Amino acid sequence: MKNIKTCMEESILVCVYYGPNGERLIRRGCTLAKMLDCPLYILTVDPLPFEEFDAEKTDYILRWKKLAEEYNAEEYIIKDNEKRPVTKVIAEVARQKNITQIVLGQTAKSRWQEITKGSIINVLLRELPFVDLHIVSVARHLENIKGYYQKGVRAYLVRDGEAYRLSFNHTKDVVYEGIFFKEIGTDFNNGVFRFMHNQETIQVSVTDDRVTDLTKIDITGPGSKSEIWDKE
What we know:
The chain is of the alpha/beta class. The chain contains 5 helices and 13 strands. It is about 25% helix and about 30% strand.
């Protein structure tokens, strides 16, 4: 049985997409809900029907449902097979649940795209002018591997033949913008590059300033890899 919340004037909605940042967003929303002693809702929006979710998406959904239970959330909401813009769905749920504060992750759009085309944040500000937005950027630290990597710095990947070259200068040739975590104890640029793609956080291995493929790695220790992310 859920505890009765004392501050019903406030209500938190956490919007999560697939990737390691989702759990961080949920924890941030939980912290806010505890501070305000108010209801917490968690939302995932996906254009595919639930039965077409792959194993990775299903795993994230199960993990977030478990977190919702652990944090005593009012409801974990999945809007699958959703063809409307994600901002419309978020706004609809916010109105239905009387949401006053929304927690969002950093979007994958560049600053120039946001200026020329508008960002999800700007759209939500127009849709929900009386709702507070909390924007959580991609973490500049790597969880569970303290002591292996230095603090992250802004970096870029530039196409270099069939591979990518790490750069610390923004030029017209930049393909990906993200955060580089250098291994401690090396004179060369070896480590992990983290960036956003299709609203998902991707982590790839860097060796001597180069990324030879876009293989996602599961950072539980140096060099441990998981599945391949399709470059196309």
